[in-house]
Design goal:
Layout: E1 11-13, E2 24-27, H1 31-35, E3 49-56, E4 61-67, H2 73-86, E5 88-91, E6 101-110, E7 122-125, E8 135-137, E9 154-156, H3 163-167, E10 172-180, E11 186-194, H4 199-211, E12 212-214, E13 223-229
Parallel strand pairs: 1-8
Antiparallel strand pairs: 2-5, 3-4, 3-6, 6-7, 8-11, 9-12, 10-11, 10-13
């Protein structure tokens, strides 16, 4: 069964209320350097360390919290120390996110079985979804039709269903606003609204960046893409 928004109470993203999980690349340095002393506590991948970071607008990690049992707590403290020292978040190219601070959530596990020479022992992953609620991003006002592009103004290819959303059977209506550079390529993409989780809006912007271009550049008007991600019935 496909996952739809469970709680219809809308979340308004902006200022200090934002989640950027899945909206870019998070660099926490080499995880093994912080966590190898606690490898046994991870029980060869049987235990998971859940972490929530607070990221400022510059991409710096400002705070770190973790959810772990008593055995993993020292590992959580070590990871948070490293995250606040070297952690850095970089949004995907062209993705417009208006926030003062935001959360980023991830999980840490160790590899199962015996370590393989040359491979990292610890890996980070991000789950999907988080809110399962409608999300509006800031106060962006969609321009009237006369002040925005239509699909006829664009060249486009068939869009692929965002992989992680498909794997987790996430369905949503998503609205994003796309602008173009002088050569007609997508320069920015602003998430406007998602009917079910924020992350699928970020994934939608990545598809827009790969899939759209202008037929007759340059053009200052944006294109507002409204798409319904629906999983086909077998």
């Amino acid at each position: 069964m496909s996952a739809v928004a469970q709680d219809q109470t809308e979340i308004i993203f902006g200022g200090d209320v934002f989640d950027v999980t899945g909206a870019g690349v998070l660099d926490l340095g080499i995880l093994d350097e912080a966590l190898m002393p606690f490898r046994r506590a991870f029980d060869q991948g049987g235990e998971r360390l859940d972490v929530e970071l607070i990221i400022n607008a510059a991409g710096t990690v400002q705070d770190c919290r973790f959810d772990a049992n008593e055995k993993l707590a020292p590992a959580g403290k070590a990871l948070c120390t490293q995250a606040q020292r070297v952690g850095r978040f970089t949004p995907y190219p062209g993705l417009v996110l208006d926030y003062a601070s935001a959360t980023y959530r991830l999980s840490i596990r160790s590899h199962t079985g015996q370590p393989i020479k040359g491979e990292a022992t610890f890996r980070a992953s991000i789950g999907y979804p988080f809110e399962r609620r409608p999300v509006t991003f800031g106060s962006y006002a969609i321009p009237p039709e006369t002040e925005r592009l239509s699909l006829a103004d664009l060249q486009y290819r068939s869009m692929e269903y965002p992989r992680d959303a498909l794997q987790n059977e996430i369905e949503a209506q998503v609205i994003v606003a796309v602008s173009f550079d002088e050569e007609g390529r997508v320069s920015t993409c602003r998430p406007v609204r998602s009917s079910n989780t924020a992350r699928i809006a970020y994934d939608t912007c990545r598809e827009a960046r790969r899939g759209f271009s202008l037929r007759k550049p340059p053009e200052a008007r944006p294109y507002v893409w409204v798409t319904h991600w629906r999983i086909a019935e077998d």
